[in-house]
Amino acid sequence: MGSGADFLIIGGGIAGLSAAAHLARHGKAVVLEAESAPGYHSSGRSVSFSHYGNGNGEVRGLTAWSRAFFEDQPVGFCPSPLCRTVPTVYFATEESLPALEALEAEILRFTDRTRRIDAEAMSALCPALRTGEGAAVTGILDPTGLKLDSNALLHSFGRAIKAAGGEVLSGRRIVSIERKGEGWSLRTASGETWSAPVLIDAAGAWADPIASLAGVRPIGVAPKRRTIIVVDPPAGADVSAWPFTHSAAGDFYMLPEAGQLLASPVDEVPDDPCDAAPEEYDVALAADRLEHYTTVPVTRIAHRWAGLRSFVADGTPTAGFEPEAPGFFWLVGQGGYGLQTAPAMAAIVEAIVTGGPWPQGLEALGVTPDRIRPERLRSSQGGAT
After folding, report:
1. What's the CA gap between 284 and 250, in Å, rounded?
2. What is the pTM for the complete model shown?
3. Which of 130, 169, 158 is nearest to 292 (CA)?
4. Residue 362 and residue 383: Cα distance in Å, rounded?
5. Which domains are delineated in the chain?
């Protein structure tokens, strides 16, 4: 089986699905996912929290632009809310005060609702946070954090693709890709063949291997593993109203979820493209950071997992046609911010592929075409091979 399409998208994570939903307005879009279900790797393992405390300026701009989609979703997109508001606290020790001040300056570019809070106020919001000498002394409260529903987003984008006449196909591992005439032809492990004039590489950690199959020079996608643990809250504590709590040093965060606490050492461990699994050292590091920054005793780790976050050299999500291969389109380097930036990146993909205008309002947020297109990465790598 298999046939032709206008757009072939390799990778059924949030990047591929959201882009396909936009492109399906302009022709037949077919998403080919290697795993048994969309969102199996990074998208399905994300903590799914949208905030301004991570990434570079472009990531924050994409995040700001995307918020309207989550808070006021398109009519008929999803039968349930896509997000809920969860306050965010970024805390600093004496040593990390410069980092907090730098972060505050960045956040203030995108929201005027933040305010400085002292140790007493932080304790009132998160009673378990250690404060005072040698611990958190000041912080920033951002009341605009959003806990996203990743399953709702993935399924809703999938429905939008199908409603427009497109397809989302799982279990389609690509084994060969070649340029034929004015388009691209690929074959799956089961023998299906597909062809389209536009081939979008949204394969996450596998983006460079997919490019190599197509004879395209890798762009330098670096997968990095992140570990999450889930622990029980202190006995008798109701943590449902606790904020998303993040260190200004960038080495810890904690988030309440379904009566328990998620915690991470915010690790970025280089790894190969794989079905990521948590390593004992990283699990122990997460537990140690939790007990270092809070009074939560780690008596039992109820669950643990790891996911791959994929980066390009400058840390900015990338979308655009490969200068060396007509019709080959990169959609890579989301860096763990794929969910919170998906609406903006999908609009960018639609604009570039169809030749439409740059999404309104993005340039004012510091997101310009030259910062997103892959040409910037090729120029830093040198000429064609």
Report:
1. 17
2. 0.95
3. 130
4. 30
5. 7-48+150-221+314-381 (3.50.50.60), 87-144+223-310 (3.30.9.10)
